[in-house]
């Protein structure tokens, strides 16, 4: 019996603990599935990147079934999932024509992830003084992307949470690239009468962004002492994540329909960090710099120098030459159906702009 060859692809982090946790995840998965050969590589910020990971997987596959399944351990399909990994796959196919490389779907918005979020929310509620959902707003905090479909997946999960719970307000916020940002959504919840807020980071593993979220929550506690906050941690080690990957592999081994995906990478330019450093130090001020770098392929980068502060009706987003653009209040929730109230500065485009009202992704 041949051993299936799997290549688990993590994002990679400047925070060494983030990459170490992905390696730990792989070790645990190997223990659960000793009949599979599981390699690990990263998209960036690591020693073993995509090309080397593909070569290692190909070397094993040549001695066995001659096939490799590449599994992105990533929640949303943005530039890395749609461009960088498929491009590396095409290059690997050219280097190893005798090996069949297949590509599994990313984790995505799905019932197992919803189950994890519901459990995280339930545990966070138990840490509050008054675990009453009617007075407790929920903010699902995603990474943020220049890809609207990736942002839409986060919004979809927020909508599902609202459908499955008794909370009147379940909103999304993002740590970078796009809007709304966390503090603006907190302000909205406070104005709509919430006395407690649960923040659910939509992240799999630790890293610089998770550390930033911890600091932001501490800042919010000091900034809004009239509110009670609880926030959960990342959830990559939850059993549902392992089960979801098991399901992906099982479908591939059975040859089930839609077990693999393909992306057109014609014209894709692989991203490189050689030209500039995306890190801007590890410090915070009371101001927000929305440094969303677009590289033409929906490739997203967050910066350690990302600060949360609001200036009345707008947030200053410094991009490129640091031009200040007034950003309208996009932090919207289920106010129409659940609270019976809309934003005072709403321009009638809620169904288009405000993500938790959008139901068609």
How does this model look, in words?
This is Sirohydrochlorin cobaltochelatase. The chain has 361 residues and is α/β, with parallel strands linked by helices. The chain folds into two domains: 5-106 and 237-254, Rossmann fold; 129-232 and 285-357, Rossmann fold, CATH 3.40.50. It has helices spanning 16-32, 50-61, 79-95, 111-126, 148-164, 182-191, 208-223, 239-254, 335-339, 350-353; strands at residues 5-10, 37-42, 67-72, 100-103, 136-142, 170-174, 196-201, 228-231. The strands form two sheets. Strands 2-1-3-4 form a four-stranded parallel sheet, with helices on both faces. It has a four-stranded parallel sheet with strand order 6-5-7-8, sandwiched between helices. The two termini are 42 Å apart. The model is unreliable at 272-361 (pLDDT under 50).
Features:
alpha/beta, CbiX-like, four-stranded parallel β-sheet, 361 residues, elongated, 10 helices, Rossmann fold, disordered C terminus, 2 domains
